[in-house]
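Homework help thread (please don't just give me the answer)

Our assignment gives two proteins as sequence + structure token strings and asks us to describe the second one. The first is just a warm-up. Here they are:
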Amino acid sequence: MSDQTADDGIEAVEDDAGPKKGGSKKKLLMIAGPILALVLVGAGAYLGGAMDMLGGDEAPAEAEVHQPVFYDLPDMLVNLNGAGRKLSFLKLNVSLELAKPEDEAVMKAMLPRIVDNFQVYLRELRVEDLQGSEGIYRLREELLRRVNMAVQPAQVSDVLFKEMLVQ
């Protein structure tokens, strides 16, 4: 019995030794942990768009898928500017990407002006101006600038080459 009494006394002394150091941290984690988890789940749902579905808000009009509208220009064949007796020609087939579908009527009405602006510019080009990807990029940018000047206030967002032949 003396062994049991000694063990009971030791346990009693250890239990009464004072406040536990880890007890307050455990309580804090037990309270703050679930709150932090709820905040993180809520933030994730808000950023993920789940809250919009619960609120019944309609999707903004900007989220609608934009269907591009293309306007094909007639084929153009121009002689290029050259210093020698040898003639060089450029055959070009271009499609214009319109910013708004409503601008197609403006394109039809302004087609003679667009073709004229392109013809005047293209006739001043030399074969060297069209070489390499840099030359094609400059041509695209210049045609885009000219067509947008011709069809204002309508807007063309891109010039697409369907066919380009330099001979």
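The one we have to describe:
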Amino acid sequence: MVESQFGLLNAVQRPQAMSLGKEAYPAFSDKVSVFIFALLQNSPFRGGNRRMALASLIAFCEINHRAIDGKVLDEKALENLIKRAASFRDLGQQPENVFHDLKDVLARAIVRSS
């Protein structure tokens, strides 16, 4: 159940953001990272926000003919990455640092699918 329509809309629209007439997130890994991080930050659902972020990551990649290379980021590591990103406040981490970590890992792990 959606608790925050604004939070969900914000997450969905964030990859399309523009800055000074240019895409704020030009690379695919930037777009998917900002989308997933916004979902985790906003927690728009009553429950299951991490599961939804994980499913959204996979769907976002699939729709855009991409996949996550399991040799770079296996299922357990991906789950831990999502947990860390979702818990940045509890861990006392700066959101920009968590976002950059997420973006760096996904940039290495996302590949074009055939």
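TA reply:
I won't write it for you, but here's a hint about the kind of observation we're looking for: The longest strand covers residues 66-68.
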